[in-house]
Design a protein that fits this description.
Layout (H helix, E strand, L loop, with lengths): L11 E3 L1 H14 L4 H16 L10 H9 L10 E6 L2 E5 L5 H19 L1 E9 L5 H9 L3 E8 L4 E2 L6 E3 L4 E6 L5 E6 L6 H10 L8 E2 L5 E2 L7 E2 L5 H16 L6 H6 L9 E9 L6 H16 L15 H13 L1 E3 L1 H14 L7 E2 L1
Parallel strand pairs: 3-4
Antiparallel strand pairs: 1-14, 1-15, 2-3, 4-13, 5-8, 5-13, 6-7, 8-9, 10-11, 10-12
Helix pairs in contact: 1-2, 2-4, 4-5
Length: 358
């Protein structure tokens, strides 16, 4: 939406394949190997396909900046520091978040196949992107999966006028009867930082109750909005605080206290993550599980709909529909984002993706 409330017209429509090739080319030029560059590109474009544009290719310039400033390591030496039959601690060496989280998914799923459940803790990664990419990938392998991510404070703690916790996301996915996933992917804030940033870039309006300005005052001005509010008040900020405890504190890489206390390390971009995989086949018949998921979905969808709701939607249903539509029709790129990507392409000396006018 534009500041006037009218739908914003995209500057470009791009195919997913063209956007992936461009993103991968950018990250290769920035120093990543082919495999890692492809992984990061695929995760970002997946978010665009599902309509989560705040976690899509709009992140490319920021990721390149993190590499240039030394906060993201394009050639990480990812290592397993501790390991048990059902768990592993991964030192990500400031790897790109998608690279670290895909490694976590693989390690957790491997543990789950041997032990029924697997836990991967990720220490010292960077922006973890759309967590639903990793959990849905595990679900397609027959796993139930949970992913968490912790970051520095960017969201108000309930009752405070300053950032005290992160908009820490959580994703849960299970296999469904369509050989895909029933997927929940959400942050602990009323709105994500990415969506506030996107609103600043595109001139979109923001409603009351989304954010505070730098002085801790409520605002509806996207340009002034700095601090998102927690969803459900104390519940959202409490959940974010506990995510910091079971990710960052367990791996001895505290983020929130370091930031609030103003330490040098606390001001650096860094994140921690957690991935849990449960092998459904170790506890029952996988086909029966998928059928029960479908039965549950149908039962809930059969409930009387609220008068203000067009239909009853399941977690991830909008995203799945967007994925199908944008896979056919292309991904819309807003003018401000297109301008940023054009400037980056020129800076790196690579060709911009082909597109048709929006």
């Amino acid at each position: 939406m534009s500041a006037s409330g009218a739908p914003a017209r995209p500057a470009a429509i791009v195919t997913a394949d063209a956007l992936r090739r461009f993103a991968a080319g950018v990250f290769e030029r920035a120093g990543m190997n082919d495999g890692d560059a492809g992984t990061v590109a695929d995760v970002l474009v997946w978010a665009n396909l599902r309509g989560v544009d705040t976690h899509g290719v709009t992140r490319i310039p920021r990721y390149v900046n993190l590499i240039e400033t030394g906060d993201m390591n394009p050639q990480p030496a990812i290592a397993l520091r501790k390991e048990t039959p059902a768990s592993v601690l991964i030192d990500a060496d400031r790897a790109a978040g998608p690279v670290a989280m895909m490694r976590a998914k693989a390690e957790a799923a491997g543990k789950a196949r041997n032990s029924g459940i697997g836990l991967a803790l990720v220490r010292a990664t960077t922006h973890t992107a759309a967590l639903g990419y990793y959990t849905s990938a595990a679900a397609r392998e027959g796993m139930a999966a949970i992913a968490l991510s912790a970051s520095w404070p960017n969201m108000a703690y309930h009752g405070a006028r300053a950032a005290g916790v992160s908009t820490s996301p959580i994703s849960i996915a299970v296999p469904d009867s369509k050989k895909d996933a029933l997927l929940l992917d959400m942050g602990t804030g009323v709105v994500s930082m990415g969506r506030l940033t996107q609103a600043k870039k595109t001139g979109a309006a923001i409603p009351a109750g989304w954010a505070l300005d730098k002085d801790g005052n409520p605002t509806t001005d996207a340009q002034a909005a700095e601090i998102p509010l927690p969803m459900a008040g104390a519940k959202g900020s409490g959940l974010a605080l506990m995510i910091e405890c079971i990710t960052s504190l367990i791996v001895s890489n505290p983020l929130i206290a370091e930031f609030i206390e103003g330490t040098a390390e606390g001001r650096r971009h860094r994140q921690n993550g957690l991935f849990i995989a449960i092998d459904i086949a170790r506890f029952g018949d996988p086909d029966a599980f998928r059928n029960e998921v479908e039965r549950l979905v149908k039962a809930v969808k059969s409930l009387p709909a609220d008068a203000d709701s067009a239909e009853i939607l399941m977690p991830g249903e909008r995203g799945r529909r967007s994925f199908e539509r944008r896979s056919r029709e292309g991904i819309p790129i807003p003018p401000a984002i297109l301008n940023e990507l054009q400037a980056l392409a020129k800076q790196l000396g690579i060709a911009l993706f082909p597109f048709r006018p929006g």
